[in-house]
Amino acid sequence: MQVLVTGGAGDVGRYLVQDLCYHGHQVRILDRALSFLDSPGSSQVNLFGGDLGDKELVARAVDGAEAVIHLAWSFSDDPLDIFDGDLVGHINLLEASARAGLNRFIYTSTATVYGRATTRPVYEDHPCLIDEARKPLYALGKFAAEELCRHYYREQGLPVTIFRFWWAFGDEIGGRHLRNLIRTVLRDEPLQVPAAAGGAFVSMADLAQACRLALSRPEAVGQTYNLGSLYLTWEDIASRIIELTGSVSKLQVILPSEWAGPTFLNEVWDLSWEKAARELDYQPAFTGNHGREAFFKALVKCINKVRATEKKR
């Protein structure tokens, strides 16, 4: 299958491209940051450098493709970047895909569209409390993108599938809040985390599995699915950071009601992926001890990068 991956030069995109090639697909990458992409080294990959705001470029990239996996997003908090950039590009891609009569259109959304988790676990029918989200403009933009997908499905028959997940990890893992925890530990300072807070991490391998299933399963069309591999608390992650670094930092677990640190760390994103398991036979491989081992291997690489950066200062 000819699959176009937007944002294919990013961390998740690069993994998906490799996975799709491994499984015999022909892949196109549309990304404005191709300079960050290692040489594909494969005749299975074609590159389109540029922005989704360029209608002609989007049309060329989509022409001849059978499916799209849409990852590209700015992650900006600037409303102009979101509504005059991300969403305009999203519409250009939806329009081109509908005209081309694609077999599948997969949109990777975010758990942030739920705004605030009021139940545990969080199922797909959880209300989207956009105005209560930690980053409401980001949540609104992603929710609007979902609604546009549903509109093109209803009105033009574009076979869309929406995936929602919280945090993806592969051989490495990044994230500003995680790096800040590591910096605190490397300075041997007390490390505070809120009690019970954490989230459902998804391995890139399991995310790739879900995309392959959505490409082939008719049940996926018109549906929204949560994805995850394992749930980890910040207390668990923080304890392992201290252990892996050999730090003498003392871990302090704070009651949620008394937490004064970043709001992000005090959230509980316990996503349920039962629907994907039931309808798509999604079976994450990185669960339990195997998932924890893979996550903490990725964490070691993150620690090493932060340590190297701190030494340069």
- CATH level 1 class label of the largest domain: Alpha Beta
Class by alpha and beta content: alpha/beta
Sketch the topology as an H/E string, one letter per element.
EHEEHEHEHEEHEEHEEHEEHH
Counted by DSSP, the helix tally is: 9
* Radius of gyration over all CA atoms, rounded: 20 Å
Strand percentage lies at 15-25%
Please tell me the overall pLDDT. 95
Structural features:
313 residues, alpha/beta, Rossmann fold, UDP-galactose 4-epimerase, domain 1, 2 domains, seven-stranded parallel beta sheet, four-stranded mixed beta sheet, 13 strands, 42% helix, 18% strand, globular
Helix/strand layout:
Blueprint: E1 2-6, H1 11-22, E2 26-31, E3 45-49, H2 55-62, E4 67-70, H3 79-100, E5 104-108, H4 136-156, E6 160-164, E7 167-169, H5 176-186, E8 191-194, E9 198-203, H6 204-216, E10 223-226, E11 230-233, H7 234-245, E12 251-254, E13 268-269, H8 274-280, H9 288-312
Parallel strand pairs: 1-2, 1-4, 2-3, 4-5, 5-6, 6-10, 7-9, 8-12, 9-13
Antiparallel strand pairs: 9-11
